[in-house]
């Protein structure tokens, strides 16, 4: 992870991608650490070298969903070539359909299948937003949320930008998605509230339509004490 050079923005440029020790190792760690307290979301995406991206998501569902309270279909990472193309209506419909099928074919005992959330970018065109809203309204998935951006001056660098530069843009997209989905689908608002995320910043996300507010970069900068301060 690399701190952006223009620190007045309080931003982070992440060039890590989805690198890890592999899905099997991740599953073992989740199994050992998740004891049912709190809410755990598991974020899945395809490998950089994968030829069939959808198959990676399906494998992620089969391997990791038993440890999660909700699953995130990540289609907005700039660190994985071609991933953002999955935000197109046809591609997203196919992806959501197959991920839902993979989830539903698993054994859930008396519990309902866990929710699916789709992670989108805040710099989409109006047509893209309308297509994503249409897909979300036709599926059973809760929908959200917001991350990298390509239209900011710092976005010329490699990697994904997060932090203060995204706040206004991501909040605007959040509001538009809320209107398009008529408030029927839970939305998770993020797009960082730096410097020093406040209750006012979180409330702006809620007023824009967020059911939940999630912190990434602000949490990295300010730590766990930030949560009670916001509340």
Sum up the overall morphology in one term. globular
What is the number of strand segments? 8
Elements, N to C (H/E): EEHEHEHEHEHEHEHH
Largest sheet: 3 strands, antiparallel
Oligomer: single chain
Distance between the termini: 28 Å
Structure overview:
- The protein is α/β, with parallel strands linked by helices.
- The protein has 8 helices and 8 strands.
- α2 runs parallel beside α3, α3 packs parallel to α4 and α4 packs across α5.
- 35% of the residues are buried.
- The N terminus is likely disordered.
How do the strands and helices of this protein lay out in sequence?
Blueprint lengths: L1 E2 L7 E4 L8 H11 L7 E4 L8 H12 L5 E5 L14 H16 L11 E4 L6 H13 L21 E4 L3 H14 L7 E2 L9 H9 L4 E2 L3 H6 L3 H5 L1
Parallel strand pairs: 3-4, 4-5, 7-8
Antiparallel strand pairs: 1-2, 2-6
Task: Give a quick set of tags describing it.
231 residues, alpha/beta, three-stranded parallel sheet, 37% helix, globular
Short description:
The chain is α/β, with parallel strands linked by helices and 231 residues long. The protein has helices spanning 23-33, 53-64, 89-104, 126-138, 167-180, 199-207, 217-222, 226-230, and strands at 2-3, 11-14, 41-44, 70-74, 116-119, 160-163, 188-189, 212-213. It has a 3-stranded antiparallel beta sheet, with no helix packed on it.
């Amino acid at each position: 992870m690399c701190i952006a050079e223009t620190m007045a923005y309080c931003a982070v440029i992440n060039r890590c991608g989805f690198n890890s020790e592999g899905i099997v190792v991740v599953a073992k760690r989740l199994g050992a650490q998740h004891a049912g307290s709190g809410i755990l979301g598991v974020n899945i995406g395809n490998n950089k070298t994968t030829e069939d991206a959808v198959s990676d998501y399906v494998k992620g569902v089969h391997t990791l969903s038993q440890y999660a309270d909700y699953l995130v279909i990540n289609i907005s990472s700039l660190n994985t070539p071609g991933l953002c193309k999955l935000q197109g209506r046809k591609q997203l419909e196919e992806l959501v359909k197959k991920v839902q099928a993979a989830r539903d074919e698993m054994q859930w005992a008396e519990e309902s299948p866990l929710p699916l959330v789709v992670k989108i970018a805040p710099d989409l065109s109006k047509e893209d937003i309308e297509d994503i809203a249409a897909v979300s309204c036709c599926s059973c998935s809760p929908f959200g949320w917001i991350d990298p951006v390509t239209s900011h001056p710092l976005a010329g660098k490699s990697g994904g930008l997060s932090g203060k530069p995204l706040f206004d843009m991501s909040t605007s997209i959040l509001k538009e998605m809320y209107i398009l989905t008529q408030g029927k689908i839970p939305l998770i608002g993020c797009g960082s509230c730096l410097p020093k995320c406040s209750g006012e910043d979180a409330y702006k996300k809620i007023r824009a339509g967020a059911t939940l507010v999630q912190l990434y970069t602000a949490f990295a900068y300010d730590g766990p004490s930030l949560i009670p301060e916001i509340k």
